[in-house]
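User: Predict structure, ligand zinc ion.
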Amino acid sequence: MEVKRCARCGVFYTNSGYVCPKCTTKDNMELSQFKNFVEENGIEINSLKQISTETGISEKNLNRFLEYDGLEGYKTLFK
Ligand SMILES: [Zn+2]
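Assistant: Predicted complex:
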């Protein structure tokens, strides 16, 4: 079994997923918030820092989301 370290809280966990079970709900919530924000505001807002300020999601987490499956397209928006 692969042991991973949660990027949000630092605990070790063995389930599949990007973060530990405890953080999954919050992570998913922020991820959809991030997606909605980009959908609503498009690429006019092309700064993660600005998105961070407006959504309250940390830049660290936003950068992490860009590595998630299905968000490959987003990555190019923030280059
Ligand atoms: Zn965690």
